[in-house]
Structure formats: C-alpha cells, structure tokens
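Dear colleague,

Thank you for sharing your sequence with our group. We've completed the structure prediction you requested, and as agreed, I am returning the results in plain text so they can be pasted directly into your records. Please verify that the sequence below matches your submission; if there's any discrepancy, let me know and we will rerun it promptly.
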Amino acid sequence: MNNLETRIYTYPPIPLADITPLEKLVLTHVLECSETEAGLVLFTDVGPINPINMKRQALLDAFGASAPQADSALNAFIGSRILALLPTSPDGNDVAAEIDLNEFPWPFIVHDIVARSPSLPEVTVIQWMNHPSQRLETYGASVSLITGKGIHHATSEELLKRFRLQDRALVPPVSLPALPDGFPVVAPRSFTVGEMETALCIWEAMLYFRGLHEDRRPVPHGVIRMSELWDATGWLAMRSHVLAIVSLAEQAYTDLSDALEEGGFTFDFDFIPAVVGALDWSEYGPYRDGEPEEFLETVMASVAGRRRDVAAEALASENLIARKS
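Please find the predicted structure tokens below.
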C-alpha cells in the first residue's frame, strides 16, 4: 500500500568487533544505522530497503575482507553472486550493484552475528506500521527475538489471537459476599522485592506450622483451621492466600518495629511466625480477629513466648549434654 509508514527499532546495539565489514556494509544499506560507543544501532523510520544498491568495488572489498574472518551465511550468499557483481564498466569506472535480499532478509544477518558473538546473547526487534488513512487494516506491529538458536517472530494479530484464547480460558470473576473486618484484601498489582521476601517468609512459617500440626505438636487454634482449609483446597489455593497476609504483616511490623528492634527479635524467625500463628482462618482465607491493637498484643506475646521456648529448649539441651559428660 502506498504511503505505508514503517518503523523498526532494535536493542541492544551490536558490538562493532562482532560485525564483519560485509555485514556492516549490507546492514547500513538496508536500515538507517548509527555507530555509538556501545556498537551499531539498527533502526529505520522509513522501513527496510530492498533491493539495495551499492558500488561494486566497495562490495567486493568488503567481501574480500570478511571471507577469512567468519564463515557467515552472508559471505556464502554474496559469494554465490560474485561473478554478477564484478565491475563491468568498459571505461573502468565503478558501477552500482543491485542486490535483492528477498532470499536473505536482514534478520538472518543479525542471527549470524549473535550466533558467533561471545557477548551478545540476543537482539530484540520491534516493528510497527500504519497508513495516514488510519484504517483498521492498515496498521499493525510485530516483535522478534533473535538469538544464536533462531529467529522468533510474532505479529500483533497473532499475539492478539493468543490473548483472546487465553481470555476465553479464564474463569469469570465470582462476586463474593462482603468479608468481615480483619480480612486482608488483595487487589491485582505488582509486588516489590521486599514484599516478595515477606511472602516467602510467610510461606515458610505456614509450612512450619503445618508440619507441627501433622506431627500432633501443640499449635495455635488458627493453625488448626489453616490445616483444615489446606486439606480442603490444596496447595495452590494456600499459596495464593500468602499474598493476602503480606500487607497485614508489613503493617504490623511497622507498628511494632521499635519494640521488635529493642528486644532484638528477627523478622523471619520471630516476627513472621508470630503473625501467622495469630491469624484465624475461614473458607475465605486468613483474617485478623478482633481489633488491630488486640492483634498486635497477641503477636508481641507470641514473639516473646517463642523466644522463651527456644531459650528453654537450648538450656535443656545443654543440661542433658552436661549430665551425659
């Protein structure tokens, strides 16, 4: 279609040391390129050019300089056409050579470079096009991932079809009854690194308490309810409940941070197990029973009690060793 606007951008720049003179010559004729300290940046605001025209002598010089450097597919492609590219001007003047790249598109050149580069694992390509008319059938985009193993490509329409299939497979959201006060609510969002570390500590504490309950060891009443829900809903559902506890735990830690620091209590070993042990559980998941102040008091009492229990176990172990010796 006339007046179709095409833009292509790639990342990262290609190190100049990884590019043969022939590859550089062809790429800079197909695309608009710029040299930076990081390497050759491939882009175009007008679309790739094909066929390309260049002086035959420059092409032959680049081919001669590149042949011993790399056994590349581009070398073989140009080499098979070398006779047709020899200067033919009767007066000895250099003439232009036209090269049709329909059989060897420019991404093949980039693939060859990435495959032999010691430092370039991949090149990403984003391309989009449109027409001034802005009609639906005149715009689109595509993405490519070029690695040493191959060229992976998808158009915007292919991606949209994939998304539609994924959307059809999703279970529609179910309207849940209003939850009582104290139930943590998880809105869809991204979690920070710190929040994910908190989630991992919570999951570790849940596994610890579940193990105690299965060994018929004394556990808080909430842990018994947690284990019953675990058996009824499975591991996947319980992992999703972890995220609901994160904000509650981090808010409690903010409120108790001074007391925890003063007592020398740790976040993962002392505080998080106390939070998990202080929660109650229903069919909807974990929740904080009672007022926030009561919950904080329960957590601090559990932290202190856990520290006393650990100290008592350590003392008992030392006394046992002393008696045996």
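Summary note from our side: Residues 193-324 form one domain.

Kind regards,
the structure core
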